[in-house]
Amino acid sequence: MHPIIWTWGPFTIYSWGFALSLAVLSGLLLTQRLGRREGLSPDQVAGLALVLVIAGLLGARLFHVLFFEWDWYQAHPWDIIRINRPGLVFQGGLLLGLGAGFWYTRHWPVSFWRLADTVTPAVVWGYSLVRIGCYFNGCCYGKPTEAAWGVVFPALPGVVRHPTQLYLAFGAGLLFLYLLWKYNRRSFEGQIFLSYLLAYSGLRIGIEFWRENPLFWGPLTLAQVVGLLVLAVAGWEYIRRSRRRSGACKK
C-alpha cells in the first residue's frame, strides 16, 4: 500500500486525496464536453460540479456518522469535520448529491433527467479512480481469501484478503465505457442515469459478499439494503419511462 505519494516539508500528498482530485478535475472536463451538446455552458457545469462535490462529501460523511460510528461522534462531535479522520460512505454521498443537484438545477432550461444523463459518466469514472485510491490507501478491504490475487493490507497484517476496491474500480470502469458508448444511443431521457443506478447497485450488492462490512439487517450489509431499495425504485422508473417513450413512438 502507498497511502502517501509524496512528502515535502509540511506538505503531504495522500493517494486517496490525489485520486479524488483527479476524479473531480477529469470528471469536470468530461461533463463540460458532454454538456455543450445539451446547451450547458462551462460555468454552469463548474458550478454544478462544486455543489455535487460538496454535497457528496457531506452526505458520505453523515452516512458514516449515523450508521457506523454514532456513539463515537456523539462523544467527539468535532471529529465529524476533521478531514484527516477516515469515514465516508459512497451511497450517502450519492443520495445527498442527487438531492442537491436537483435543487441547484430546478430553474435551468434543461430537464433533470437529461442533466443526470450528462453528469453520470463523470460520476462513474470518478468513482473508479477513487476506488483505486482506496486500494493504495489500504482501506475498504475485503474478507479473508485463499485466492491467488489476494492482498495483505497493513491494517490487518498476516491476513490475505479480497482487494474489493479493485473489484469495484474494474466494474465501474467497464460501466463507464458502456455508458459513454450508450450516451448518444439512449432512447429516452434518464436512461443513462437509471442504467447506472441499476448496474452499480447490482455490482455493489454482489461485491459486498466479499467485503469486510458489518451486517445491518439479517445477512445483509447497509450497502446491500440501500442497493436493493435503489434497484427497486430505479427499476420501476426505468420501466415507466421506457414504456412512456414506446407509447409516444407508436402515436
Residue-averaged pLDDT, rounded?
Answer: 89
Query: Quaternary arrangement of the chains shown?
Result: single chain
**Total E-strand runs:** 6
- What is Rg? 19 Å
Fraction of residues in H or I helices? 55-70%
Strand order of the largest sheet: 1-2
How would a textbook summarize the main sheet? Answer: 2 strands, antiparallel
Beta-strand portion reads 5-15%
Question: What is the count of helical runs?
Answer: 8
Shape: globular
Report the end-to-end length measured between terminal Cα atoms: 59 Å
Order of helices and strands: EEHHHHHEEHHEEH
What is the number of independent domains? 1
Contiguous runs where pLDDT drops below 50 for at least 5 residues: 247-251
Could you say which structural class the secondary elements and strand pairing correspond to? mainly alpha
In short:
With about 250 residues, the chain is mostly helical.
Model description:
It is a single chain. The protein is mainly α. The chain has one domain. The chain has helices spanning 15-37, 42-67, 70-75, 90-104, 112-137, 164-182, 191-207, 222-250; strands at residues 4-8, 11-14, 151-152, 160-161, 215-217, 220-221. It has a two-stranded antiparallel ribbon. A two-stranded antiparallel ribbon has the order 3-4. Helix 5 (112-137) packs antiparallel against helix 6, helix 6 runs antiparallel to helix 7 (191-207) and helix 7 (191-207) runs antiparallel to helix 8. The longest helix is centred in the C-terminal third of the chain and has 29 residues, at 222-250. The termini are far apart. Mean pLDDT is 89; it is low at 247-251.
